[in-house]
Amino acid sequence: MAEPANRRMEAVRRHLLLPPPPSQPQPSPLCPNPLSSHTVVEVEPRPVIIGGMVLDIHAKPSVPPHPGTTVPGTVKYVSGGVARNIAECMAKLGTRSFMISVVGNDMAGDFLLKYWRSAGLCTEGILQVHDVATPVVSNVFDGSGELIAGVASVGAVEKFLTPSWLYRFRHHISNAPLVMLDANLPPDSLEAACISQKVDGNIMLSYFFPVAYESGVPVLFEPVSVVKSRRIAPIAEYITCTSPNEIELVAMANSLSPPVKYNYHKMEQCKDKAEAVEYLFEMLSPAMFFLLEKGIKMLVVTLGSNGVFICCKEHTDFVKDQRKCKQTPFSKQLLEKLDGRFPSNNPVDLCRESCSRTCVFHLPAISASVISLTGAGDCLVGGVLSALCGGLDIIQSVAIGVAIAKASVESQANIPDHISAASVSDDAQKVLLSARTLWCK
C-alpha cells in the first residue's frame, strides 16, 4: 500500500513545483514535440513581444545632486523594461500582445506580475524562476526629467530567455501579425534565432527568427542601448524595422561595417529646427542608407526634440497580412481621423508604389510640458506597432507614436495611466501636417 501512496505524493509534488528553466526544447500543451516541424497548433493571432520585464527605481532629487552624499528627493518603484513598456502601451491602446519574458520569484517579480495580471494581460509566456533576481534598473534624474545616471541588472534575461524557451512559443510567433524583440536578449538566442542548429546530428530550423521570417511575419528590433544595439549585426537581414536613436543608429551601422566608418557629432544648441533637421539628415543619412543595404527594410530614427526620421524603400509594407490584426475602438477612431493624411510635399504611398526608391521622411516632435523622459521611446514604438496592427499606414502610425510619446513625457509613469484617442489623433494630425519628405531617389 505504501508504494502507490508514495507515487501519488511524488505526482502531487511535481505538479506543485515550478519547472526548472529549460536547457533543451521541452514538450508542452502548445508544442507536443519540439523536433516535429509538421505539428500544427491553432493559436490566436496576436503581436508577440519578447524581452525584458524590469522593476525601475526612479530617483529624482529636489535640489541639485552632490557627489559623495545624498540629497532630498523622491524615489519610486515603476514597472519597466523596454519590451514590457511597449506591450503595456499597446494594451492601453486596445492591442493585446503575447509577452515572452522572465522574472525572479522575489518581491520585484511579484510586483511586476501582480500589475500584469491586474491589467488582464497574459502571463503564459513569462517564466518565473526561483532563486533568481528579477531584472532591476536604478535611474537618477535631474530636475527636468533628464537621466543623469543609471545602473541596469538584467542578467536573468540573458540567462533564461534561451532559444529553447522561445521555441516553446513558435506557433504564437509564426502566426503573429508582427514580432518585436528588444536587444536585452542574449547574443546566443539571437544567433540561434537566425542560424540553423544541429540537434542529434540533424539540422533543425532555427528556434525563432526564420519562424517569423519564413512565415512572412514582420520583425522589429528595439536596440535598448548603444552597447546592445550592436547585437543586430548577425541578424540584420531578417529585420523588417528597427527604432534606434542617433547614437544607436551609428553603433549599429559600425557593427556591420568594421572598421568604424560612421560618426555622429551632436549639434550645438540651434533654435532653428529646420536647420537642425537638415544637419541631422546630412550626418545620419550615410548610416541609414548603409543599414538598408544590409537588409533592414525600415528605420524609425528617434531624434528627441527634433522628431523622427523614417527611412525605407518605397514599396515597404510592414504588416503584410491584415487579417491577423484586430481593429479596436481606439484604432478605428484614429483611422477615421487620419485617413488619407500624408506629408504635404511630395506624398508617397509606401505600400502600393512598385518602384524601389529610397525615401526619408521627417516627422516633428510636439512641444510638451516635460515631467519625465523615461518611457517616451517605448511609448513611441508601442504606438507605432498598435497603429500598424489597427490598419494605419507607416507614416500615420509613426505620427501616432510621436503623439503618444508626448503623453508619456507629461506623465510620471513610464506609460501614461490614461491615453485619450481624441488627444492622440489631434496631436498626430499636427505631426502629419508638418511632416516633410526629405529624400526620395
From TrEMBL:
Q: Which SUPFAM superfamilies match?
A: Ribokinase-like (SSF53613)
What keywords are assigned to this protein?
Answer: Kinase, Metal-binding, Transferase
The protein, known as: Carbohydrate kinase PfkB domain-containing protein
| Domain of life from the UniProt record | Eukaryota
- GO cellular-component terms in the record? peroxisome
Species annotation: Panicum hallii var. hallii
Which InterPro entries does the entry link to?
Answer: Carboh/pur_kinase_PfkB_CS, PfkB_dom, Ribo/fructo_kinase, Ribokinase-like
Instruction: Respond yes or no to whether keyword Cytoplasm is given for this record.
Output: no
* PANTHER family membership: CARBOHYDRATE KINASE PFKB DOMAIN-CONTAINING PROTEIN (PTHR42909:SF1), ZGC:136858 (PTHR42909)
Gene Ontology terms for molecular function: hydrolase activity, acting on glycosyl bonds; metal ion binding; pseudouridine kinase activity; pseudouridylate synthase activity
- Homology family: Belongs to the carbohydrate kinase PfkB family.
Q: PROSITE patterns per the record?
A: PFKB_KINASES_1
Which biological process terms from the Gene Ontology are attached to this UniProt entry? pyrimidine ribonucleoside metabolic process
Taking every annotated instance into account, which residue ranges of this chain make up the domain Carbohydrate kinase PfkB?
53-320, 358-412
